[in-house]
Write a structure and sequence with these properties.
By secondary structure, the chain is α/β, with parallel strands linked by helices. The chain folds into 2 domains: about 5-140 and about 310-330, 3-Layer(aba) Sandwich (Rossmann fold); about 150-290, Rossmann fold, CATH 3.40.50.10750. The protein has helices at about 5-15, 25-35, 50-55, 75-85, 95-100, 105-115, 130-140, 180-200, 220-235, 245-250, 250-255, 275-290, 315-330; strands spanning about 15-20, 40-45, 65, 120, 150-155, 165-170, 205, 240-245, 270, 290-300, 305. The longest helix has 19 residues, at about 180-200. The chain is globular. The protein starts with a helix and ends with a helix.
Length: about 325
């Protein structure tokens, strides 16, 4: 299944404006050229004249909007608004100015906050915390106090499992050790994300090293409780566990271990018990199965802000921009 091709086509039908604030990275310019050529999204690049000039003539990005925070007419308004937004934290004018001129992720988030753009993709040369801290401070969550989590959209070639090889792996990028309540909420949000992006029914497996009581441990009990909470709170979705990963995706194994489960053997959304398992799992599949892994894609933000792996390729950036555009359509 060519999920990214499908997402590109959907993005084209209702083009959104996505900000790529990392003008210091050549991959961003190469991706921008492709995005504009394929008409996936409108692109805003943030950078000084010196930063933009470094790669400008090498790539055809003339249709991109370039914003230089040091001389843009928007900057003064954004500084004042940031002071207002963060006044409870004691932010001064000088602090806000320093952030916007020197941390382009803050500038990007302020553009989204003021409805001048629809989403942000960053992380090619910055850490996840550098990407998400400004987003959580400025754009915030869909509902106050709700959890933001991250998933990878996995596209596994020549794969009989999942949705023709397409899966969501969560949380594989953000929440270190989720509680049972948090796991249940991650499961619900991941089901929504799968439905939005893949446009197929999500079938959600809560993973463990145990299948239906085959092992006893507090870590297993956490997943069992999460399944109970998820089924009670989110009955619209097929969610089950605790399941070992083979029982979750392989029908023959599922028949042996948990034949009565409506999820086992058919799962396309895999919820890992903690960040260690999720991160290790997605990277193993990416490397050993030569899968495409797009993300970390955030869920739970008021507007889409998505992270990139620092080892991302140009095609990865293009794919995440397409995903971000479809998220913004919703």
């Amino acid at each position: 299944m060519n999920i990214i091709k499908d997402l590109k086509e959907r993005a084209k039908k209702q083009k959104k404006t996505i900000i790529l604030p990392e003008s210091m990275d050549e991959r961003i310019f190469a991706a921008t050229e492709i995005i504009l050529k394929e008409e996936i999204a409108n692109i805003i690049l943030i950078g000084t004249e010196t930063e933009i000039k470094r790669y400008y003539d090498k790539y055809d990005i003339k249709r991109a909007t370039i914003i230089d925070p040091t001389n843009s007419l928007k900057t003064e308004k954004l500084i004042s608004y940031l002071v207002e937004l963060r006044k409870d934290k004691g932010m001064s004018y000088d602090e806000a100015k320093d952030l916007l001129l020197n941390d382009y992720m803050y500038y990007a988030c302020m553009l989204v906050k003021t409805n001048e753009a629809d989403g942000v993709v960053s992380g090619a040369c910055h850490s996840t915390s550098n990407t998400l801290r400004p987003a959580l401070q400025i754009i915030k969550t869909k509902k106050e106090g709700e959890l933001v989590s991250a998933f990878f959209l996995m596209n596994v070639p020549n794969c009989q499992y999942g949705e023709n090889g397409v899966f969501i792996f969560a949380d594989a990028g953000l929440v270190q050790n989720p509680s049972s309540n948090e796991l249940a909420f991650i499961a619900k949000n991941s089901a929504e994300s799968f439905k939005l992006l893949v446009d197929k029914e999500p079938i959600v497996a809560m993973l463990s090293h145990s299948t239906k009581g085959s092992a006893k441990h507090n870590d297993v009990l956490k997943v069992i409780e999460a399944v109970k909470i998820a089924k009670e709170k989110y009955p619209a979705y097929k969610i089950d566990g605790e399941l070992q990963v083979d029982a979750a995706i392989d029908k023959d194994i599922a028949k042996m271990k948990c034949e009565d489960s409506e999820v086992a053997g058919k799962a396309n959304v895999l919820i890992f018990p903690d960040l260690d398992a999720g991160n290790i799992g997605y990277k193993l599949v990416q490397r050993l199965a030569k899968a495409e892994a797009y993300g970390p894609i955030c869920q739970g933000m008021a507007s889409p802000v998505n992270d990139l792996s620092r080892g991302c390729s140009v095609d990865d950036i293009v794919g995440v921009v397409a995903i971000t555009s479809v998220q913004a359509q919703k």
